[in-house]
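Q: Convert this sequence to structure tokens.
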Amino acid sequence: MRMRRKRHREERMQACGALMITELPQGGWTEVFGNENPVHIEIGCGKGKFVTDMATEHPQINFIAVEKCLDVLVLAMERAKAAELSNVRFIPGDILTLAELFPEGIGERIYLNFSDPWPKSGTAKRRLTAEGFLNLYRKILAPTGGIWMKTDNRKLFEFSLTSFEENGFLLKNVCYDLHHSDFCGNVMTEYETRFAEQGMPIHRLEAYLKEI
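A:
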């Protein structure tokens, strides 16, 4: 279901303008954040609960959140602004069209949280773990960087396991029921909170460019 357009969206986004990046200054992300801390990227941040909570818990890390739906992006930016966070920035748009904003090797970690499963076979290339996207992530990630993925969709998860392996990524900490595992430090998204309340299993994996 399409989200209803938020009232006064443009004015609200303008009020959070300091948190939104549409082009990089000459000094790159170091100039944006004012430091050279490690960079983590969330692709599809939704309403921003995950990235805001992560930025709050890890002030020594810079977070970049990408979101193409402006009606949820404005909510994410308002959440981060209210939390007075200096280590999170937002990019409006699709990750494929924004590749120039990510210098090669900048990302220590990429988060894919509850991405659109694109369930029809004809739309497989649009899944965020399809080969075309993985090739992009490989350029963005640092040599020791990794991708952390969570989803409630079993078919997307199994597709992703195969895609990562076929494209040379090394899988670690593969889990089919996160909330009944021994994984520590999980930060939940809005969707995850809802699914957990319904007793739905959450699938999780980590994929790396090389053994760490």
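The CA atoms of residues 22 and 144 lie 27 Å apart.
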